[in-house]
Amino acid sequence: MNEIASFIIAKYNYWIYIVLMMIGLYAMIVKNNLVKKIIGMNIFQTAIILFYVSIGTKRGATIPIIYHGHGDGSHAVHATDYINPLPHVLMLTAIVVSVATLGVALAIALKVYRRYNTLEEDEIFTQIRRK
Amino acid sequence: MEMIESIKPLLAVLISVVVVVPLIIISRRPNTREAWTFVAAVGKFILVASMLPVILDGSEITCTVASVLPGLDIAFRVDAFGMLFALVSSSLWIVTSVYSIGYMRGLDEHSQARYFSFFALSLSATIGVAFSANLLTLYLFYEMLSFATYPLVTHHQDIEARRSGRKYLLYIVGSSIALVLPAMIITWQLTGTLTFSPAGILGGQASPAVVTMLLFFFLYGFAKAGLMPFHSWLPAAMVAPTPVSALLHAVAVVKVGVFCILRVLTGVFGIKLLADLNLGTVVAVLASITIITSSLIAMSQDGLKRRLAFSTISQLSYIILGAAILSPKSMTGGMVHIAMHAFGKITLFFCAGAIFVATGKKYISEMAGIGKQMPITMTAFFIGALSVIGLPPCGGIISKWNIAVGTLETHQAGFLVVLLVSSILNAAYFLPIVYKAFFCGPEETLFPDKIKEAPLWCVVPLVVTAVLSILMFIFPQPFLTLAKLSVGTLFINP
Amino acid sequence: MTQHLPAIIIVVPLLSALLVAVFGWIKKTICFVIALPAMGIVFLSSIVLFYKVITENQPIIYFLGGWSPPVGIAYNIDHLSSLVLVLISGVTLAHLIATRQTVIEEFTNKVSAFYTLYILFVTGLMGIVATGDAFNLYVLLEIASITGYAMIGMNSGRAYLACFNYIIIGTIGACLYLLGVGYIYLVTGSLNMLDIASILPGLVDSKVVPAAFIICMVGLMVKMGLFPLHGWLPNAYTYAPSSVSTLMAPLTTKVMIYVMVRVALYVFTPVLSFSVIKPGNGFTWIAVAAIIMGSLMALSQQNIKKMLSYIVIAEVGYMVGGLWLGNRMGITGAILHIVNDAVMTLCIFLAVVSFSSYKKRDKLSDFQGAFKEMPVTAAVFCVAAISIIGVPPTCGFFSKWYLISGGLAAGHYAFVAALLFSSLINMVLFFRIIEIAYFEPFSDHHGKKHHVKIAEASPGLLIPLIIVACMLIILGLYTDELVTHVISHAIPAEIV
Amino acid sequence: MKKLGLIIVLICGSLMLYGTIDFPDWADPSSPASTHLSPYFIETAMHDTAVPNIVTAVLADYRGYDTMFETTVIFAAGLACFFLLRRFQRRAPDVNLFRHMPTGITLRIKKGGKVPVDSSEFERIDSIWVPYDLIIKTTCRLLIPFILLFALYVIAHGHHSPGGGFQGGVILGAGIILYAISHNLRAAKARIKERFDAYMCSAGVFIYVGTGVLCLLMGANFLDYSALAPLLGTDPIMARSHGILIVEIGVGIAVMAVMICLYYNLSSAGRQDEGL
Question: Which backbone phi and psi does C63 adopt, to 5 degrees?
Answer without folding.
Answer: -90, 115
